[in-house]
Design goal:
- This protein is about 55% helix and about 0% strand.
- The chain starts with 13 loop residues before the first helix and ends with a helix.
- The chain has 8 helices and no strands.
- It has a single domain, classed as Orthogonal Bundle (Hypothetical protein af1432).
- Helix 5 packs across helix 6.
- Bound molecules: fe (ii) ion (2 copies).
- One fe (ii) ion binds near residues 82, 93 and 116.
């Protein structure tokens, strides 16, 4: 197998780093989507007191988004918005947003990044918090998108009797979104500085 010439990065050559980039791309194509889907599947099991587990919640969220006519990226965002839950339970929204950021539009990234605080509108007042914490973002161009995402597809997706589509239905969509050219959409859709 090809290997670099160096043992310290500062000694590497352009050929070494071309090799590294090729290997990284190859590994990404082979594993990245599987690892992201693995984070989703890792939420199977514990219901944490809810009527369904967080895996079913995610599938239901995506199913609801799709049935409401959301575009593919938004359906994938609904499916993956909670993938940070098992490894970053105290900042799960940021983790999911960071993992998916290079493959999303700026708007969809922002919605995932902030869905935790917007979802708080539905329950934080019951646990000693401020349900209106999201008001700090009032006036932001994506405020309503994030409010709608939570209102229609996140806070509604805890119903054990809902006709939720299986993961196989969404998997091709996930693989298409994650195979996008990194940062292209992100840069094209970022607001002017
Ligand atoms: Fe969440
Ligand atoms: Fe959620």
């Amino acid at each position: 197998m090809d290997q670099v010439s160096f043992t310290r990065m500062e000694d590497g050559t352009a050929a070494d780093y071309a090799l590294i980039l090729r290997e990284e791309e190859r590994l990404k194509a082979a594993q990245f989507a599987d690892h992201v889907l693995g984070l989703l599947k890792a939420m199977q099991g514990p219901k944490l007191g809810y009527k369904i587990d967080r895996y079913q919640h995610s599938l239901q969220s995506a199913t609801r988004a799709e049935r409401d006519g959301a575009d593919e990226e938004t359906v994938v965002a609904a499916l993956l918005h909670d993938i940070g839950d098992t490894v970053a339970p105290d900042n799960h929204a940021e983790l999911a947003a960071t993992v998916l950021k290079p493959y999303l539009t700026h708007r969809t990234w922002w919605v995932i990044q902030h869905h935790g605080i917007f979802q708080g509108y539905y329950f934080w007042h019951h646990i000693g918090g401020d349900r209106n914490a999201r008001e700090a973002y009032r006036g932001h161009p994506y405020f309503q998108d994030c409010a709608d995402f939570c209102a229609k597809w996140d806070q509604t997706a805890f119903d054990p009797d809902y006709d939720t589509a299986p993961l196989e239905h969404f998997e091709p969509k996930v693989r298409r979104v994650l195979a996008r050219e990194p940062w292209r959409l992100w840069k094209e859709t970022a607001p002017a500085a």
